[in-house]
Amino acid sequence: MLTDIFVYENRYSRQNSFARVVELIEHSADLYNCIKMCVKTHWITTGGKMGKKLELRPGENILVDTGRFTLQGKKVKFPVHTRCVLTDQRFVYFHLGKMVPFYFQMSFLLRIFIKGTPVSLPLEGMKVSRGKYVRNKKLLELKAIDGSAILLDRFEKSLEWFRDSLNSNGIGFTQTAEEEWRVEP
Q1: 79 with 109: CB under 8 angstroms?
Q2: Sheet holding 78-87: strands in order across?
Q3: Would you state the CATH architecture of domain 62-184?
Q4: Which stretches does DSSP call E strand in 9-135?
Q5: 10-to-4, 42, 45, 51 alpha-carbon distances in Å
Q6: Closest Cα partner for 4 from 41, 42, 43?
């Protein structure tokens, strides 16, 4: 009953959603059930997506829509779990902007409401290689022709995921050097 009321309020007035979450926490005897209700209502109201709405180009198809750890930031990079979308024309990840340094310090309830900005890298001519940040060499770097790049966590697993996703949908993935590949749509 309480969940239905909260979902109803969340659908029709987004302004009071945070106040309603705080009210639920204050009046709830069982915090676990309260968090469970908030997560459930988030999935119902946003369709389960972490970031802003992704607008597809005409004739573009989504191959994979998942969450992965990326390194984001300007001078200092922080690991952030973000939504990554692989289409037949581009790779899109959601950048959290100024909230990146505070992402892990925020409570779970606040992370639900943080939306990222979609950043796209075209697949045509994309260079895939082993990335490096400070002493961490276990990163996968995706670099577009225009120079924009993203670092994904866990080199072997990310490379396997990326290669399998592309190959299963008929997009070429050829090795050009020892630890360097190129995407050929």
Answers
A1: no
A2: 117-122, 90-95, 78-87, 62-72, 149-153, 136-143, 127-133, 180-184, 172-177
A3: Roll (2.30)
A4: 62-72, 78-87, 90-95, 117-122, 127-133
A5: 10, 9, 7, 17
A6: 41
Token readout for 182 is: 């190129």
Report long-range pairs for 39-48 (Cβ below 8 Å, ≥24 apart). Answer: 39/112, 40/3, 41/3, 41/6, 41/7, 41/10, 42/112, 44/7, 44/10, 45/7, 45/10, 45/11
Residue 93 identity: Y
pTM given for the model: 0.66
Write down the residue that tokens 């581009």 correspond to.
90
Lookup: tokens for 179 = 């630890």
Q: What is the pLDDT of residues 40-76, one digit of tens each?
A: 444 433 344 444 677 888 888 889 988 889 888 888 8
CA-nearest of 128, 162, 161 to 143 is 128
Question: For residue 175, how many other CB atoms are within 10 A of its CB?
Answer: 11
Q: Tokens standing for 114?
A: 């943080």
Q: How far apart are CA 16 and CA 70, in angstroms?
A: 32
Q: Give, for 184, the enclosing helix (H) or strand (E).
A: strand 180-184
**Domain coordinates in residue numbering, the chain:** 2-46, 62-184
Averaged pLDDT of the chain: 76
- What does the alpha-carbon distance between residue 131 and residue 153 come to, in Å, rounded to a whole number? 9
